[in-house]
Amino acid sequence: MTPSDKNMSLHPYRTIWVLAWPQVLMMVFHFLIGAVDVKVAGILNAQVQAALGMISQVMMFFLVVAIAMANGAVAAISQSVGAGMTVRVKRYVGLVLLLALGLGFLIMALSFPIRGTLLDALQVNPEIRDITRYFLEIYLLVTPFYYLLLITNAIFRSQKQVMQPLYTMVLITVLNAIGDLGFGLGWFGMPNLGYKGMAWATFAAIAGGSLLNLTQLMRQGLVSRASFAPWRWVRRATPYIFKVAWPSALMSMVWNSGYLVLFALTSSLPIGSEAANVVLAGLTVGNRIEALLFLPAFAFNMTASILVGHWLGAGKPDEAKRFGYRILAIGMVTIGAITLVLWLFVEPVTGYFAADAAVKDAGVSYLSWNMAAVPFTIISMLLGGAFNGAGATILNLGIFGMAIWFVRLPLAWWLGHETMQSADGIWIAMFVSQLIQAIVIFFVYHFY
C-alpha cells in the first residue's frame, strides 16, 4: 500500500470531502448557469422558458456518448493511477480525447440535417417551434466543444485533480451570465438579441471552458506527442473503454430519451395547448431549481467513481465497497439538509424564476413530489457512481432502464393522460419510479 493509499484508509471521510467539496461547488456554479438561463428566459416570456426546457433535454440526449466516454475515461485512468501505471495514464488521455472529439463532430454532422424531424418527434407546439429550432441549431454547433469539455473534466477528476474543473466552471458561469444578460436582455450596452443572444452566450461559454481545460492538460504534459500511442496499443486499449462506455451510453440514451418522452407526455396533456405550455414552463423551472439537489448528488456520484476505481485498481475491492457506503452516508446528510432548506422556501424560490403565477404553481407542484423522492435519488446516483468507477456500467443500464421504461413512463401516461388527466399524475409516476429504482440498486450493490 502506497503512503497515499494508507492516508486514505486512515482518514476516509477527510479523503472523501477533499475530493467532494470542489465538485459540489462546481455543481453550484453549474446550477447558476441554468438559473440565469431560466431567469432571463422568464423575463422574455413563458414560450422561451418552455422552449429552453425542451431543448435542454434534447441537448442531454446528444451528449450521451460524451458522458459514456467520460465514465470510461474515469474507470480506465483512475484504475491506472491506482496501479501506478503512469505511461498508461498518458496514453488513455490521448485516446479518449481523440475519440471524444471525433464523435462530437460526427454527432453534430449527423443531427443537423434532421433537426426538423426531431422537433416533429417531440410534438413541439407551434407557438414555440421557431424558438426551439433556433436553440437546437446553436446547441448542435457547440456539441464538439461540449464533448471536449466533458472528457477533459473527466481526465482531471480521474487523477483527483478536482480544482481545475471548478475553475473552468467558474469561467463558464461568468461568460454565460454576461452573454445572457448582455445579448439576451441588452444589458451593458450590448445589442438586445433576445433568445438568440441566450443561445450564442451558451456557445461562447462552453467553447471558452473547453479550450481552457485543453490548455491546462497541455501545460501539465498530459497532452503531448507521447499521449498518442501506437496503433497496436490503441487496438488493445480501446475495447476496455468501449466495454465501460457502451452500457453507459445506452443508459444515458435510455435516461434522456425517457425525459424527452416525459416532456412530450407533459406537452400533450389533455388540458389544452396553452395550459400544457404553462405546465411545460413550470417543469423547466422546477428542473433547474431541482438542480440544487441533483447537481451536488452528481458531485458525490463522481467522487464515488474516482475512489472506487482507485481502490479496485490497487487490488482492494473490500475497501472500494466501504468507500461507496461512506460516500452514500455523507451525501445523504449533506443533500438531505439542502433539501430541507429548499422545502421551507420552495414557493418564493420558484416565484423568483417564474414571472407567471400559473408557471410558479406548476413548478411548485413538480418540486414537491421530486423533493419527497430525494432520499431515493441520492441512493441511486451515488451507488450508480460506484458502479461507474468499477466499470460495471451494465448494472446501471439495467436498473435505470427498468425504472424509466417499465415503471415511470407507462405510469406517467396512465395517471397523467387517462386517470388523473393532469400533471400531478406525471409527478407521482416519477416519485414511484425513483423509489423502486433505489430499492433495486441498493440491493444489487450490497450483494455485488
Task: Please specify the SSE layout and strand pairing.
Blueprint: H1 3-10, H2 12-44, H3 46-62, H4 64-82, H5 86-111, H6 115-121, H7 129-141, H8 143-158, H9 163-185, H10 195-219, H11 231-267, H12 273-313, H13 317-344, H14 346-353, H15 357-372, H16 374-389, H17 393-419, H18 423-447
Report on the structure:
With 448 residues, the protein is an all-alpha fold. 86% of the residues lie in helices and 0% in strands. It starts with a helix and ends with a helix. The model has no long low-confidence stretch (mean pLDDT 82).
Write a brief structural summary.
It is built from 18 helices and no strands. The protein has 448 residues and is an all-alpha fold.
By DSSP, the count of extended strands is 0
Radius of gyration: 21 Å
N-C termini distance:
24 Å
Runs with pLDDT <50, length 5+? none
List the secondary-structure elements in sequence, H or E.
Answer: HHHHHHHHHHHHHHHHHH
